[in-house]
Design goal:
The radius of gyration is 35 Å and the shape is elongated. It has 4 domains: 2-203, 2-Layer Sandwich (Heat Shock Protein 90); 235-370, Ribosomal Protein S5, domain 2; 401-495, Rossmann fold; 499-540 and 563-625, Heat shock protein 90, C-terminal domain (Four Helix Bundle (Hemerythrin (Met), subunit A), Up-down Bundle). The protein is of the alpha+beta class. The strands form 5 sheets. The protein has a 9-stranded mixed beta sheet with strand order 1-6-5-4-7-3-2-8-9. The chain has a 5-stranded mixed beta sheet with strand order 10-11-14-12-13, sandwiched between helices. The protein has a 3-stranded parallel beta sheet with strand order 18-17-19. It has 19 helices and 22 strands. The structure holds adenosine-5'-triphosphate. Adenosine-5'-triphosphate is lined by residues 31, 35-36, 39, 76, 78-81, 89-90, 93-94, 97, 119, 121-122, 167. Residues 484-511 form a coiled coil.
């Protein structure tokens, strides 16, 4: 037996390892299983090129808990190590690697998020173990070796009688880490980090019920089978040509077992130059409530789970998607800000954006009807992408849709072509009318449709920002919500409208109105509209309302403070009601008429509530008595 001191340059690295990334102690298991996987894959490679004179067979990795002994075993059938190799790889290289890693990142670990996910290697075992043993037998014809270290820089190395090839790591779990001999805890960890690793991992056995025989003779039989926790060949490691639609759907369920809704479609990523990246992204059905999003894209490095926080790697608008990205080229043991500036990561991000845009474009071209059906579920991602990525904005112009309240879907180009003749105002601006809610804006929509206008239904939470952007990009284009002005003013034409009322009469009417109507809430606006147009109408100016919406959904114009709710009360001076109000004999009756009209206008905007509604109903009954 040899004993020796691990070459420690820092006073004592083990307390540091223990303290390091306190919340991430669990990653030790992933590190050890990664090593076991690497050792197995190395053997596979050596046997395949004829370098190792042994049979590869069907190696698996075993994870065993010894509850009484408070030990955790990780056993592989990989290349193993000779005593000399243990000396070299464990005592020298692995240790200096861990030491270097700690020195480099211990200060920045807190804010980095991603650092904890990779790099500590074999020595991360000391985060949870008070003593670690390695029993290993190389594929070469040499005796097995037994290494042991109790967390001090001292280790022992001696021969061992182990005869099967491979490595067994034994962790003597420390008193403060006994959670790691709990079956449930280990099982959860294995699923979290190793669910798709390339070598089968066995964690004990499980019972399966088999049916033997057929019909009446059928009997159920309980059998104990290996509990293999991983799928070594997940869908993304296969070629798209090998996979059917059903395989993609099954893989989605495998990734998100708690997700019952089917994905809308998927995008298979596959590139090997100038960087390596594979993966499958799914478009889920999204609700307007963005905070509901909890199943996220998972990032893997050679089938080892790294994180489901892909911020900085995937463009932000695509973080709403689900699926897997696997790349050995994403530098993981660096801080997040470094990651965002990394050239490779930038390329990866623009590759993904392009792939997504191409896929959407081909879905649109190949089956427009189906694409239209899916539009409501995918529009948020597309609109967000158009707002945040210039390249995506350009590409999206061919497939971004603008639905009307009558369920017709136009691209912007088609829409403009269609509405230009009727919806261009006197200044040559094409006005796109839209509603955000078919119910509450019903009367406004109907009025616009009666004029032959096309009314869009734009109801996603960020669409205000998109309209703003489109207005900036395209000349002579303006979006206006149907309830933002009187119908004649929504699209101003070159007509002089003549008022039935004289200037004097208009003055009198205005005075009567302003006396009866609370000034702080409504700005009274007299308009000479067609005589059958609605007599009283409440409108909300487009600009202020849109700014307010943009402020609520982030971005937009800052420094404006809170935008007030501003409403206009448009009174049609050519309506019979206006004349009637003007000619009413008694002041009391006039006031009643005005109040009733105002309430009706409020009612059609969904603004009449509570006490006001009670008064309105009472007054209405009085009037029809
Ligand atoms: N189960 C094993 N079988 C064979 N060799 C192993 C095993 N575990 C570790 N080793 C050897 O010890 C070395 C050091 O392992 P360690 O985990 O510290 O670093 P690494 O795997 O090289 O890199 P990483 O930091 O990515 O984990 C490995 O490179 C390998 O040569």
């Amino acid at each position: 037996m040899t004993t020796g001191n691990i070459n420690v340059s820092v006073e004592n690295i083990f307390p540091l390892i223990k303290k390091f990334l306190y919340s991430d102690h669990e990653i030790f298991l992933r590190e050890l299983i990664s090593n076991a996987t690497d050792a197995t894959l190395k053997l596979k490679h050596l046997t395949s090129i004829g370098e190792a004179n042994v049979t590869y067979g069907n190696p698996i990795i075993d994870v065993r808990i010894d509850k009484e002994g408070k030990k955790l075993h990780i056993i592989d059938q990989g290349i193993g190590m000779t005593a000399q190799e243990v000396e070299k790889y464990i005592n020298q290289i692995a240790f200096s690697g861990a030491e270097e890693f700690l020195n480099k990142y211990k200060d920045s670990a807190k804010d980095s998020g991603i650092i904890g996910h990779f790099g500590l290697g074999f020595y991360s075992a000391f985060m949870v173990a008070s003593k670690v043993e390695i029993i290993t037998k190389s594929y070469k014809d040499e005796p097995a070796a037994h290494w042991s270290c109790d967390g001090s820089p001292q280790y022992t190395l001696e021969a061992h009688e182990k005869t099967e090839r491979g490595t067994e790591i034994i962790l003597h779990i420390a008193e403060d880490s006994l959670e790691f001999i709990e079956e449930q805890r280990i099982s959860t960890l294995l699923v979290k980090y190793n669910k798709f690793m390339p070598i089968p991992i066995r964690f004990g056995t499980r019972t399966e019920t088999n049916t033997i025989g057929e019909g009446e003779d059928a009997k159920e039989e309980q059998v104990e089978i290996d509990n293999i926790i991983n799928n070594p060949t997940p869908a993304w490691t296969k070629q798209p040509s090998e996979l059917k639609d059903e395989d993609y759907k099954n893989f989605y369920r495998e990734l998100y077992p708690m997700q019952f809704e089917e994905p809308l479609f998927n995008i298979h990523l596959n590139v090997d130059y100038p960087f390596n990246l594979t993966g499958i992204l799914y478009f889920p059905k999204l609700s307007n409530d963005l905070s509901m999003q909890k199943d996220r894209i998972q990032l893997y490095q050679n089938q080892v789970f790294v994180t489901d926080n892909v911020e900085g790697i995937v463009p932000e608008f695509l973080t709403m998607l689900r699926g897997v990205i696997d790349s050995p080229d994403i530098p993981l043991n660096v801080s997040r800000s470094y990651l965002q500036a990394d050239g490779n990561v930038k390329k990866i991000s623009s590759y993904i954006t392009r792939k997504v845009a191409d896929k959407l474009s081909s879905l649109f071209k190949d089956n427009r009807e189906d694409f239209e059906k899916k539009w409501n579920d995918i529009k948020i991602v597309i609109e967000y992408g158009m707002l945040s990525e210039e390249k995506f904005f350009e590409k999206a112009s061919s497939f971004a849709l603008y639905p009307t309240v009558d369920n017709q879907y136009f691209t912007l180009e088609e829409l403009l072509e269609k509405v230009k003749p009727l919806q261009t105002d006197k200044d040559g601006k094409t006005i796109l009318l839209y509603a955000s809610n078919e119910e509450t804006q019903h009367s406004y929509i109907e009025e616009a449709k009666a004029k032959g206008y096309e009314v869009l239904l734009l109801d996603s939470p960020i669409v205000a920002h998109l309209m703003q952007k489109l207005e900036q990009e395209k000349e002579n284009l303006s979006f206006t919500r149907v309830d933002s002005d009187s119908i004649e003013n929504l699209i101003k034409k070159e007509e002089d409208r003549i008022s039935k009322l004289s200037d004097q009469e208009q003055e009198t009417l205005k005075t009567a109105l302003t006396e009866a109507i609370p000034q702080e809430k409504y700005t009274v606006q007299l308009e000479a509209l067609e005589s059958d147009a609605t007599p009283f109408r409440i409108t909300q100016p487009e600009f202020m309302r849109r700014m307010k919406e943009m402020q609520q959904t982030g971005g937009g114009m800052f420094g404006f403070g809170n935008f007030p709710e501003i409403y206009n009360l448009v009174v049609n001076t050519n309506s019979e009601l206006a004349t009637q109000i003007l000619t009413t004999k008694t002041k009391a009756k006039q006031e009643r008429l005005i109040k009733q009209s105002l309430d009706l206008a409020k009612l059609s905007q969904g603004l009449l509530k509570g006490e006001e509604l009670t008064h309105f109903i009472k007054r209405s009954f009085e009037m029809i008595k």
